[in-house]
Amino acid sequence: MLAHEYPSVDTLNKEPGWRRFTGNIMVKAKEYPLYAIDCEMCKTAEGSEVTQIAIVDESLNCIYKTYIKPANPIIDYVTAYSGITADILKDVTTTLADVVKHMNNILPTQAVFVGHSLENDLKALKLYHDKVIDTATIYSSGKGGSFKPGLRFLAMKHLKAKIQDSANGHDPSEDAMTCMRLVKLKVKRGPKFGIVVNGNDNSLSIYLTKQSKTGVFIDKPIVAQQHCRGLAQALPATSDAEGLDTLIRRLSSKSEFYWYHMYKLEPIYRACTTIHDMINNPQLTGALQYIDESVQRIYTALPADTLFVVYSGCSGYWKKPEFNGSDEVMKKLMANIVGQVRRGLLFLKVKN
Question: Residues 170-187: pLDDT tens digits?
Answer without folding.
Answer: 999 999 999 999 999 999
